[in-house]
Amino acid sequence: MDAAPVSIPAYYRLVRGNANFRKLWFAQIISEIGDWFFTVAVYSLLYELTGSAKSLALAFVLGVLPQAVAAPMAGAINDRISRKRVMIFADLCRAVIVILMVFARTRETLPFLYLLIVLETVMWALFEPGRSAVIPNITRSQGETVTANGLSSTTWAFNFFFGAAVGGLAAAAFGRDLVFVINSASFVVSALLVRSMTFAEPHATDKPPLRLRDLFDFRPVMEGFRYLRSHAGIRPVIFLKAGVAVIGSNWVILPILGERDFPVSFAGLDAQRAGMLGMSVMLGSRGLGALIGPLTGGAWAGKSIPRMKAGVLLGFSLIVSGYLLLGQSETVWSAVTGIVIAHAGASMVWVFSSSMLHFLSDDAYRGRIFSTDFMLMTMMLSISSWTAGELIDSGRSAQFAATITGLAALLPLSLWALLLVSQRRSA
Q1: How far is 87 from 191, CA to CA, in rounded Å?
Q2: Whole-prediction pTM
């Protein structure tokens, strides 16, 4: 494939000229901004009630690990019935789940909050493979598919940056209940936008209706694994997001840094609200880095798979250097710089991974491919975040955990470098 630039004008042409993608994009914007409002509110509530890094780690693990359990079946469902209907169902369920979080206010209600986090995660596991899998169905060329992946990742990053920053301000000014209400409403709007989309879903053509016992039929799941085993080009790519997930520890490290080391205090704010704003700055910096990565990396790589592979190597290098810098930071500006560098690299790897999976996989298996992709990622996210919580609660600093994270990212960097050398020698 020839390289073609992925740029802001290309994003504009895609959104303006493709109504289905435009609706999916608006749905992503609305629901994800609501999600990041919700994240700051939940993390600040947990730390306020427990004062423990492991409580944040547990919340994050419960927010990702059920995806690993649900992902294979979620992928089979998305490859069996209309992905559009699956996304609508998942959105409406999440709207109900999130509004129930207003009743979690004390330590005694923490188990209820954790249960809601698990249920919301299962619905995400249904929604996200469907959203990723339909992109080639609603784009008109491989170039548009690359542009759509880049814009989706850039949008996720902007939503993270905006939602985390404004979410902290909103929670500090108006309270957490309003944040939960906004997030619940965002899922309803997202469902309505997805419902208005019109596109072909060839994977579901001539398939019988899904029955309850089909949910316990693991043959489609095994077919997906056999497909992966027989396609050597896909196998290393499907581990890339798991490699990025070694920095899943950031979901514990960054809130703790904002609360303990870099609180933002002005206009007489009390310590609790200053810590909440510090969390927003740390998490917002993560979103800013993720916004920069796809814009710069996509403009260079275009739709060239060799360039994407080289971009993955660069992305992992930025992750390592950024977290090592964060681990040595003495000022908030140095910390922000390290976070931006690392997550610019992480978002580059994410976009290139998704684009290569779209190009290399068949539509009939794409839901299962992305479900496996997310399953591997969530398992690593759970391990890395829980390890960070254990380190910090054992007396280590959040910056020490950041340094360990940067060193851990050397492993996927080294493995990918060895793979590229091996492929070049074979060629």
Answers
A1: 7
A2: 0.69
Predicted confidence band of residue 358 (pLDDT cuts 50, 70, 90): confident
Amino acid at 293: G
Evaluate whether 73 touches 61 at the Cβ level (below 8 Å).
Answer: no
Whether the CB-CB separation of 60 and 385 falls below 8 Å is answered with yes
Cα angle 46, 50, 52 (rounded to 5 degrees) comes to: 95
Average pLDDT over residues 257-285: 75
Do 7 and 299 form a contact (C-beta atoms < 8 A)?
yes
Task: Yes or no: say if 12 and 5 are a contact pair by the CB < 8 Å rule.
Answer: no
Which of the four pLDDT bands, split at 50, 70 and 90, describes residue 150?
confident
| Burial profile 367-392: b = 16 or more Cβ within 10 angstroms, e = fewer | bbbbbbbbbbbbbbbbbbbbbbbebb
The C-alpha atoms of residue 150 and residue 155 are separated, in whole angstroms, by: 8
Amino acid (one-letter) located at 384: S
Residue 180 to residue 100: CA distance in whole angstroms:
8
Using alpha carbons, select from 409, 56, 385, 340 the residue that is nearest to residue 249: 385
